[in-house]
Design goal:
The chain is mainly alpha-helical and 263 residues long. 40% of the residues lie in helices and 9% in strands. Strands 1-2 form a two-stranded parallel sheet. The chain has a two-stranded antiparallel sheet with strand order 3-4. Helix 2 runs parallel beside helix 4.
Length: 263
């Protein structure tokens, strides 16, 4: 795959001619061919090759044959690169689609020692579990219901809320709970040091607005950035923006609030 990306690998759907390659590419090809053939490197430096005729820099054998003869190959119907969630889903889908063909073969390539991509966790010596990817999984995704066996996954549940590290307090985490899903957490929600009581009442207004409108009605509202919606439309303070909305929403959408849509 690296060879193909550089434009001189195994058979491509279009021919690669000498005239279409730069001296740098030709020099690189010749060096790689020496490695595969076990040839010794001559005294020619890279700067010397810039003055050579490109045709003189090519190996004796055709480029395609050099790599085909020296790299083990395996025939397959479909080759999928990457064993993350998307790669495994693609492999399952392809295997089902080719199940009637006895000679069909699906190959999944993964560079690391395990499958799953970022769906992986590391446990530290002091007992913390660090997720390499996003930790929350929403069970209502239609495709996930179709592909995954939830019972075998043994999914765990998180308590509704979050622990937030406040900059002024470096030793403790502030608990932010959702009293709508867990009424027993009302006290913690009201007094969490992430904003004023008014900020928390405004959160209730946002939730009321979302729950009393249809999806179509919500998308008919004027679109702004998330930052403008939170500050100008709903009037949230800078404290709750910095301590809660900014780290929470930017962690989910991987973009600054000013680049996110209010929808």
């Amino acid at each position: 795959l690296q060879h193909e990306a550089l434009g001189f690998g195994v058979k491509a759907p279009y021919p690669t001619t000498v005239s279409s390659l730069s001296p740098t590419q030709l020099d690189l090809m010749r060096g790689i061919s020496r490695i595969f053939r076990g040839r010794k490197k001559d005294d020619t430096t890279f700067s010397d090759t810039l003055d050579k005729n490109p045709e003189e820099m090519l190996p004796q054998e055709p480029l395609e044959q050099v790599f085909i003869d020296t790299i083990p190959t395996e025939k397959c119907s479909v080759c999928i690169v990457g064993g993350g969630v998307s790669g495994m889903s693609a492999a399952i889908t392809c295997a089902k689609g080719l199940s009637k063909n006895e000679n069909a073969k699906v190959v999944l390539l993964e560079a690391s020692s395990s499958l799953g991509g970022r769906v992986k966790s590391d446990v530290t010596d002091d007992g913390y579990t660090l997720d390499q990817g996003f930790a929350v999984f929403i069970e209502e995704y239609p495709l996930s219901k179709k592909l995954l066996d939830y019972d075998k996954l043994k999914l765990g549940k998180f308590l509704p809320g979050a622990l937030i590290k406040i900059r002024k307090n470096r030793t403790e985490l502030a608990r932010v709970s959702d009293p709508l899903r867990d009424p027993s957490q009302l006290f913690d929600a009201l007094f969490a040091p992430i904003g004023s009581i008014f900020d928390k009442l405004k959160i209730a207004l946002v939730i009321l607005n979302v729950r009393t409108k249809t999806i179509e009605e919500l998308f008919q509202e004027r679109e702004t950035s998330t930052l403008d919606a939170l500050k100008d439309r709903w009037g949230f303070s800078d404290v709750i923006l910095d301590r809660f909305f900014k780290p929470f929403l930017e962690g989910i959408y991987l973009a600054p609030l000013e680049e996110q849509s209010s929808r």
